[in-house]
């Protein structure tokens, strides 16, 4: 029984890596960076490839980042997702060079940058607080990195104009930050990073200061910008909606360790642990203790009020598991219910309803189109398809998947789990 390994980045041969051009932060490089990067991408060279190797950072007795290894491919939009205090911002700051690692290493485009100063890493960071200069106009805020590099006036004007058009700021160049909305200030902060033509953008919860409506529109703008630029984005957030809607891949962290890496579909449909299952989704996956046992050569998951067939042939002794079911995969009013309980609360969300039901000692959420046809106090029978049932180890919380020839698992792995063939 093995935890399912999340897919890794596609390896790049050493010959391809050697053939690529690496860029620093000098004015001469900055002037031709965009053209050269476009040529390199057309040749298949990794331009914004970031490799994190066993990164560890401690603050006193607290290990903020615990042996994280992660490959970020050139041009991908990778989101570091997790709850507050999980180490995602510390890891991003380590990549930027703002927080030195205690052990481990970092590579950018195949070049070791572990001890390279932040100014020489060819990375641009956008902070949660915008960090704009209040006495400078939008135009001068955007152009500040180029002036710091002593770029020519013509180059500065050209690049600022290009970035302003890209971010729809052309009509705001003479304004000061205090005259802008929150969304406009965020775009100026992004423009100041964009004007540098960096190998990768590092974004630390850039939308957290915006209201819900503005966050939705800015998410769309960032995804469109990434699609046009084809540059590497590494984005930190605790908001699963941002992660699911923006990322090409999501890296989920918990207590400084990497729980799972995969596409939004992979981490949602096949969570590698009970932590991932309970973190993603609104409401999150229902998790309850159950037993798996054989009955007539078929396997069943049972608990108080629950008797669900796994439709898998097997002959095992009774095994303790954690059973997981997404709220949207529970069907009320099914003629063959495998779960029986009582409705305690129904929430109306407009197009959908969420019913909270007591099934034995467990409380389960059921989500579906309105109306669900359920009311508080109703006795309800629920059904779920076997392919929508998830089994986890009660000890380590890792996903239980039977494999005849298992591949080695990757992040935050537990010892091999003894569980049930599925």
Notes on the protein architecture:
This protein is α+β, with helices and mostly antiparallel strands and 422 residues long. It folds into two domains: 265 residues, P-loop containing nucleotide triphosphate hydrolases (Rossmann fold), CATH 3.40.50.300; 114 residues, OB fold (Dihydrolipoamide Acetyltransferase, E2P) (Beta Barrel). The chain has ten helices and 20 strands. Helix 4 crosses helix 5 and helix 4 runs parallel beside helix 6. The longest helix is centred in the middle third of the chain and has 18 residues. The N and C termini lie close together (10 Å). The N terminus is likely disordered.
For the sheet with most strands, the description reads:
6 strands, mixed
- CATH-derived topology of the largest domain: Rossmann fold
- Overall geometry comes to elongated
Q: How many structural domains in the coordinates? A: 2
State the separation between the terminal residues, measured CA to CA.
Answer: 10 Å
Measured as a percent range, the helix fraction is: 10-25%
| Alpha-beta content class | alpha+beta
Strand content: 25-35%
Name of the CATH class of the largest domain: Alpha Beta
Annotated CATH homologous superfamily of the largest domain: P-loop containing nucleotide triphosphate hydrolases
How many helices does DSSP assign? 10
Low-confidence stretches: 1-39, 41-46, 402-418
Describe the secondary-structure layout.
Elements: H1 14-18, H2 27-42, E1 50-59, E2 62-72, E3 77-81, H3 88-96, E4 103-108, E5 111-112, E6 123-126, H4 138-148, H5 153-166, H6 182-194, E7 200-204, H7 212-229, E8 232-237, H8 240-246, E9 249-254, E10 257-262, H9 264-269, H10 274-279, E11 286-295, E12 298-303, E13 306-313, E14 319-325, E15 331-332, E16 339-348, E17 352-359, E18 362-369, E19 379-383, E20 389-392
Parallel strand pairs: 3-8, 3-9, 6-7, 7-8
Antiparallel strand pairs: 1-2, 1-4, 4-5, 9-10, 11-12, 11-14, 12-13, 14-20, 15-19, 16-17, 16-19, 17-18
Pfam family, one: TOBE_2
GO biological process, one term: carbohydrate transport
GO molecular function: ABC-type transporter activity; ATP binding; ATP hydrolysis activity
């Amino acid at each position: 029984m093995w935890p399912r390994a999340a897919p890794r980045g596609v390896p790049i041969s050493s010959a391809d890596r050697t053939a690529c051009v690496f860029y620093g932060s000098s004015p001469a490089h900055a002037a031709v960076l965009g053209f050269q990067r476009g040529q390199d991408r057309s040749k298949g060279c990794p331009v914004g490839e970031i490799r994190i190797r066993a990164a560890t950072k401690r603050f006193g007795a607290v290990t903020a980042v615990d042996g994280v290894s992660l490959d970020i491919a050139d041009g991908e939009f990778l989101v570091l997702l997790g709850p507050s205090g999980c180490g995602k911002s510390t890891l991003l700051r380590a990549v930027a060079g703002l927080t030195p690692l205690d052990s481990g290493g970092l590579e950018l485009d195949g070049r070791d940058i572990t001890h390279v100063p932040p100014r020489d890493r060819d990375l641009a960071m956008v902070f949660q607080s915008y960090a704009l200069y209040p006495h400078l106009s939008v135009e001068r805020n955007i152009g500040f990195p180029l002036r710091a590099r002593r770029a020519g006036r013509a180059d500065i004007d050209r690049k600022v104009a290009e970035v302003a058009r890209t971010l729809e700021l052309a009509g705001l160049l003479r304004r000061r930050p205090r005259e802008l909305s929150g969304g406009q200030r965020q775009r100026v902060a992004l423009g100041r990073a964009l004007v540098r033509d960096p190998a990768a953008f590092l974004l630390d919860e850039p939308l957290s200061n915006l209201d819900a409506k503005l966050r939705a529109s800015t998410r769309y703008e960032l995804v469109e910008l990434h699609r046009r630029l084809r540059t590497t984005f590494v984005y930190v957030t605790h908001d699963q909606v941002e992660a699911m809607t923006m990322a090409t891949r999501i890296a989920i962290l918990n207590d400084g360790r990497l729980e799972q890496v995969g596409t939004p579909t992979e981490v949602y449909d096949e969570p590698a642990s009970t932590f991932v299952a309970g973190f993603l989704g609104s409401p999150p996956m229902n998790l309850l203790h159950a037993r798996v046992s054989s009955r007539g050569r078929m396997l069943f998951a049972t608990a108080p009020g629950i008797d669900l067939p796994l439709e898998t042939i097997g002959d095992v002794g009774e095994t303790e598991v954690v059973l997981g079911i997404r709220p949207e995969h529970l069907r009320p009013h099914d003629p063959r219910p495998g779960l029986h309980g009582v409705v305690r609360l129904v929430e109306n969300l407009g197009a959908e309803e969420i019913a909270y039901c007591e099934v034995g000692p467990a409380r389960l959420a059921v989500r579906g189109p309105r109306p669900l046809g359920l009311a508080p106090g109703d006795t309800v029978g629920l059904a779920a398809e076997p392919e929508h049932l998830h089994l986890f180890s009660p000890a380590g919380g890792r996903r239980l998947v039977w494999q005849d020839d298992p591949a080695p698992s990757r992040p935050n792995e537990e010892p091999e789990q003894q569980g049930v063939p599925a």
